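Saturday, quiet lab. Running sequence design on the structure tokens for the scaffold JK sent over.
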């Protein structure tokens, strides 16, 4: 601790303050004329400025002698430039050869690098793109990404699935903070909303060494909206109504820059009654309410940039499909009345996520010190209003110490240490305990080296982790304590080749996942999943290795991507259904398959014809297959999926204008590759539609109308938890969304 405090003091003492004006002009490289309303963004400082109609900009503040900036403008290639701070600088942008709207820069939480330079293929979209046809929750929104699926329990609970893997095999990160929120439970949601989220970035497979060892399926990185440009303020209010659940979501969010302080703050509230089935009936107890608040503060002094962020969310979620009857049929869970009022059984969630990030920018190094704390409280009330059936609190303190160093023009390295300490406690008043009181201590060290030469970039990295799990004994159902230490390492090797219209990526990466406490020692009824679960203390850590290849072609009007992969997993943990009943529930015991092979591919095309620049056509296809070494199917593999979007973007000059029209058709093919105790799923198609009107003023007003499942199709998704009781997914959902924005810029 003494050495750590000394290091911080030394870093703070080394901070030099430079009261300077950073000014210049952004120019067209061919015509040498200024580019109107181009943008310059200081990456490490989360601070930007818009140029005027002549391409000129001015940014005042206290900066070090050199900074890394991103310069961008519509119709031009985005540039990342490292430059000295001075006046009258000139930046030249090359006109883009492509008219396709492609996001070139990955999410701010990653390497802040151009996508073409990324070793791994990263699926990155803004929240606005994912909500081209607005969704009910964040889980439905990220399902638009190739290779990403949604395992849901009605509208109230959604869980991300990447390449057929979910739960603790998928690591979710919010602004660098790993989200720990009972993700081991099939009926426990993500615990965050899209409030204030700017972009979502997905890394598929165990290709990330920075965010932990558990990510066999992949990493989902949620990045907040950037802070407002200097001397600007923005207030955005939105309201969305949905016909299917008579649901509404209202939100307000402020972004502002006041002298040296940058502020993001907002809140939202959602309320939904039972969702309506295509038959016209309603799914009993599928109602839910949720609310969240968010605050972000940012400031900088010279080489020191600091951000403080806090998120609070809470939800009251009904548990559809709950019954103690021995004979189950779909009509048992349907009603002719749509109810919003709370009824048992019900879940209550609350989440606190706090982070304090300090970055020190030197000439060739950037040091990042991140500390955070999360708390998740889960309560389930089953048959009594005052006494919870289950109540458990999970606390997590974590830290990351990371150095990003540019050794030479060709060599760079990222290295650091990372750890977290978790402790969870059951409420003594709760009637049941599915898992005991326990603690978990993690520590990991990682290093990744990059080498650039000509059109190639190469990467090699390693990571080692140690995890200690300690559970307590008690007289309620866990007579034996469990204490064990696990260790393992990961590696990643890959390269990217980029030249003109083509990009090729090749990666080999490994991963390991320590069995979760619920898989090791659980012993009780999990009402949310309608089963009795028994743990297995003899489970070994999962070990995985993946080969991932990506080929991208992009010219002026056409973009094509093909991304095949194959993954080999040892000691694959799964739930084995037994021919036994306890308390009227079927018993599921955790077990392991010695070897599992996961394979598949994502493919996509984006066509933007020259003769119709207002028209965009996008189509993707995702396929995943899981087999054991004995050629048996792995359960819960998602259906093959074909998605299509046709987008008309209008360029009207009127004050009231049509902004765009979006038509989506998503086809899910039948799933017959199922395990021994798993039922098949039929194919189905969903048609979605959206139209956006805009009042074009300094403070624009936007109106979206449309529908999801426009044809009121009957379907049950293969990954829906309600599939086991034959309960269909929601029918036609007509929505209206109004967005009002107020902008103010101080001259």
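Result came back. Writing it out in full:
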């Amino acid at each position: 601790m003494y050495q750590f405090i000394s290091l911080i003091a030394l870093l703070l003492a080394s901070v030099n303050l430079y009261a300077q004006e950073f000014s210049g002009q952004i120019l067209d490289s061919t015509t040498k004329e200024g580019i109107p309303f181009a943008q310059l963004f200081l990456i490490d400082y989360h601070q930007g400025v818009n140029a005027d109609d002549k391409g000129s900009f001015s940014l005042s503040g206290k900066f070090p002698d050199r900074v890394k900036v991103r310069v961008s403008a519509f119709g031009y290639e985005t540039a990342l430039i490292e430059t000295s701070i001075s006046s009258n600088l000139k930046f030249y942008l090359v006109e883009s050869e492509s008219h396709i709207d492609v996001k070139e820069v990955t999410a701010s939480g990653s390497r802040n690098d151009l996508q073409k330079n990324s070793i791994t293929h990263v699926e990155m979209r803004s929240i606005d793109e994912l909500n081209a046809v607005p969704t009910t929750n964040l889980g439905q929104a990220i399902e638009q990404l190739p290779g990403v699926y949604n395992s849901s329990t009605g509208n109230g609970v959604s869980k991300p699935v990447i390449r057929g893997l979910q739960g603790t095999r998928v690591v979710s990160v919010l602004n660098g903070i790993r989200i720990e929120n009972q993700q081991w439970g099939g009926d426990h949601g993500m615990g965050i909303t899209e409030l204030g989220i700017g972009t979502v970035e997905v890394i598929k497979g165990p290709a990330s060494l920075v965010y932990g060892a558990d990510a066999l399926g992949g990493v989902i990185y949620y990045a907040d909206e950037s802070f407002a440009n200097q001397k600007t303020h923005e207030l955005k209010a939105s309201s969305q109504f949905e016909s299917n659940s008579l649901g509404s979501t209202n939100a307000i969010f402020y972004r502002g820059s006041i002298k040296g302080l940058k502020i993001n703050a907002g809140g939202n509230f959602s309320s939904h009654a039972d969702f309506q089935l295509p038959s016209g009936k309603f799914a009993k107890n599928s109602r839910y309410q949720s609310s969240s608040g968010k605050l972000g503060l940012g400031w900088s002094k010279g080489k020191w940039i600091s951000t403080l962020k806090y998120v609070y969310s809470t939800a009251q979620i009904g548990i559809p499909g709950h019954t103690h009857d021995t004979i189950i049929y779909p009509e048992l869970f349907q009603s002719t009345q749509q109810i919003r009022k709370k009824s048992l059984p019900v879940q209550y969630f609350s989440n606190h996520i706090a982070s304090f990030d300090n970055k020190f920018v030197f000439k060739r190094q950037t040091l990042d010190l991140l500390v955070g704390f999360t708390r998740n409280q889960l309560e389930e009330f089953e048959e009594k209003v005052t006494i919870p059936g289950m109540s458990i609190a999970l606390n997590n303190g974590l830290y990351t110490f990371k150095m990003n160093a540019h050794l030479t023009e060709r060599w760079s390295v990222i290295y650091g240490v990372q750890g977290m300490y978790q402790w969870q406690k059951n409420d003594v008043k709760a009637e049941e305990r599915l898992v005991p009181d326990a603690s978990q201590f993690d520590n990991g060290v990682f290093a990744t080296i990059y080498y650039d030469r000509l059109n190639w970039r190469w990467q090699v990295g390693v990571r080692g982790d140690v995890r200690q799990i300690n559970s307590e004994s008690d007289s309620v159902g866990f007579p034996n304590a469990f204490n064990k230490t696990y260790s393992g390492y990961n590696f990643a090797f890959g390269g990217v080749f980029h030249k003109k219209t083509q990009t090729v990526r090749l990666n080999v990466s490994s991963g390991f996942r320590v069995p979760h406490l619920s898989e090791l020692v659980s012993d009780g009824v999990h009402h949310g999943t309608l089963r009795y679960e028994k743990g297995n203390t003899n489970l070994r850590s999962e070990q995985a290795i993946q080969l991932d290849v990506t080929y991208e072609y992009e010219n002026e009007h056409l973009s094509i991507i093909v991304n095949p992969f194959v993954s080999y997993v040892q000691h694959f943990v799964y739930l084995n259904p037994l021919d036994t009943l306890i308390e009227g529930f079927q018993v599921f015991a955790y077990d392991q398959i010695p070897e599992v092979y996961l394979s598949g591919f994502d493919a996509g095309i984006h066509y933007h014809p020259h003769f119709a620049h207002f028209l965009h056509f996008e189509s993707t296809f995702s396929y995943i297959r899981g087999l054991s070494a004995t050629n048996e199917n792995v359960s819960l593999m998602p259906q093959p999926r074909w998605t299509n979007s046709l987008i008309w973007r209008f360029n009207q000059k009127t004050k009231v204008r049509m902004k765009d029209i979006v038509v989506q058709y998503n086809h899910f093919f039948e799933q017959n590759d199922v395990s021994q105790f798993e039922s098949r799923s039929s194919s189905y198609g969903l048609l979605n539609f959206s139209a956006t009107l805009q009042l074009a003023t300094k403070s624009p007003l936007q109106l979206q109308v449309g529908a999801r499942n426009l044809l009121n199709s009957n379907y049950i998704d293969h990954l829906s938890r309600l599939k086991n009781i034959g309960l269909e997914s929601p029918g036609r959902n007509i929505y209206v969304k109004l967005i009002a924005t107020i902008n103010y810029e101080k001259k």
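Notes for JK: Residues 20 and 733 are 54 Å apart (CA to CA). Residues 1-5, 10-19, 97-109 have pLDDT under 50 and may be disordered. Ask whether to fix the surface positions before the next round.
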